[in-house]
Write a structure and sequence with these properties.
heterodimer; A: mainly alpha; 3 domains; 4 helices; B: 236 residues; 2 domains
C-alpha cells in the first residue's frame, strides 16, 4: 500500500472511531433513544467480540483448523478461566501468550 | 503562597489520577508492545504504527488493522471493520453521558477521544462514586493513552529487530484480548446465546467467502436478534 493510502486509511479509522465515542456523550446528555436501539447497542459488544474471537481461534493461514494441534484453541481454555475468575485483561492476555509460547517451545510446533 | 497552593493542587490531581490508571497502564504496555511488533511486521512503518496509536487509540481494532494491512485488505474494508469493531464505544459514551452534564464542551470532546473499554471500566466505577471532576478524569485518560503510545513505540522499534513473533506468542495477544473483553461483557444467558450465534455466523460467513464482511454482518444481525428477544420479553 502506498504511504499516502496508509495515512488516509489511518485518518478514516480515526474519524470512524472518534464519532461513536463522541456523539452519544455530546447529544444524549438529556435525550432518550428508542427502546430497540438501546437494546441493540447493548448487544453489539458481545456480538462483535464473539464474531471476532471464533474466527481468530479457528482460522489459520487462511483455512479452517479443527485439528488436534490447534494450540490457539487449547490456550483459550486457561485464558477463559482467568478472564472469568480474575476479571483481568492483563492476566488473560499473559496467560494465553504464555501457554502458546510454552506449548510451541515444548512441542516444536 | 498562592502559587504554591495552586501547584500542589495540580500535582495532587496527577497523583490521584495515577492510581486508578495503573491497572490499565499495566495492561496497555505489553499489549501496546505486541501491537507495535505486529504492525511493523505487517508492513507499517514505525511512524505509521505510532500515529495509529495517537489518532485512533483503540486497542483491539488496531491489532485487527495490523493484520488487515498485512493481508493487503482494501482501505475501505479496513475503515468499515474499524467502525463496526469500535461501535461498542457508543454504548459506553451514552452510559457515561449523564455524568458529564456540567462539563464544558471541549472537555467532553477530549474525554470521548480517549474513551476505551478499559478506561470506561475505570470511569463508570468512579462516576458512580461521584468522582467525575473533568480534570482528574481526563488526566486518567491521558496517562492511559501515554502508556499505549509508549508501548506501541517500543514494540515498533523491537518489531524492526524481531523477524518471527511466534516464539514469543505475540500473535496470541489479539485472540486473548478478545477472550478477556468478551468474558467481561457476559452478564447473562442471553449474552451467551448471542455470543455463540454471532461467533458461528461469523465463521460460516467467512467460510462461504465473505472474508471481509463476516464480522460486520454477523454483529449487526445477531445483536438485532438479541435486541428483538429483549424487547419482546419486556413487552410480554
Amino acid at each position: 500500500m502506498a504511504e499516502s493510502t496508509v495515512i488516509f486509511t489511518l485518518i478514516g479509522m480515526a474519524i470512524v472511531t472518534y464519532l461513536p465515542r463522541l456523539l452519544p456523550a455530546w447529544f444524549l446528555r438529556n435525550q432518550k433513544l428508542p427502546e430497540f436501539v438501546i437494546a441493540w447497542l447493548r448487544y453489539v459488544p458481545v456480538a462483535v467480540l464473539a464474531a471476532l474471537l471464533l474466527p481468530s481461534l479457528l482460522i489459520q493461514n487462511q483455512e479452517l483448523n479443527l485439528r488436534f494441534d490447534n494450540i490457539y484453541l487449547w490456550a483459550a481454555i486457561p485464558a477463559i478461566g482467568v478472564a472469568w475468575y480474575k476479571k483481568s485483561l492483563f492476566g488473560t492476555v499473559i496467560t494465553g501468550m504464555l501457554v502458546v509460547a510454552i506449548a510451541r517451545f515444548l512441542l516444536n510446533l | 503562597m498562592n502559587n504554591t497552593t495552586i501547584k500542589q493542587t495540580g500535582n495532587s490531581n496527577w497523583f490521584q489520577s495515577i492510581t486508578p490508571a495503573l491497572p490499565v497502564v499495566m495492561g496497555y504496555l505489553p499489549i501496546g508492545f505486541a501491537y507495535g511488533v505486529l504492525a511493523v511486521n505487517g508492513g507499517l512503518s514505525t511512524f505509521q504504527t505510532v500515529l495509529m496509536s495517537i489518532i485512533v487509540y483503540a486497542g483491539s481494532s488496531q491489532l485487527i488493522a495490523a493484520s488487515l494491512f498485512a493481508q493487503m485488505i482494501s482501505p475501505f474494508s479496513i475503515i468499515a471493520t474499524t467502525f463496526i469493531v469500535n461501535l461498542r464505544h457508543m454504548l459506553m459514551s451514552a452510559a457515561l453521558a449523564p455524568h458529564m452534564q456540567n462539563w464544558k464542551n471541549y472537555q467532553v470532546a477530549f474525554f470521548s477521544y480517549e474513551l476505551t473499554d478499559e478506561s470506561f471500566g475505570v470511569h463508570s466505577l468512579r462516576f458512580e462514586r461521584g468522582q467525575n471532576q473533568p480534570t482528574s478524569t481526563i488526566a486518567i485518560n491521558m496517562i492511559c493513552q501515554f502508556a499505549w503510545v509508549a508501548g506501541s513505540m517500543v514494540g515498533a522499534v523491537a518489531g524492526n529487530l524481531i523477524e518471527d513473533v511466534r516464539p514469543f506468542a505475540l500473535d496470541y495477544a489479539l485472540p486473548a484480548m478478545f477472550i478477556a473483553l468478551l468474558v467481561l461483557q457476559i452478564k447473562n444467558r442471553k449474552h451467551v446465546l448471542i455470543a455463540v450465534l454471532s461467533g458461528f455466523a461469523s465463521l460460516i460467513l467467512w467460510m462461504i467467502g465473505l472474508t471481509q464482511w463476516n464480522v460486520i454482518i454477523a454483529t449487526v444481525f445477531t445483536a438485532a436478534l438479541g435486541a428483538g428477544i429483549e424487547v419482546w420479553l419486556n413487552r410480554r
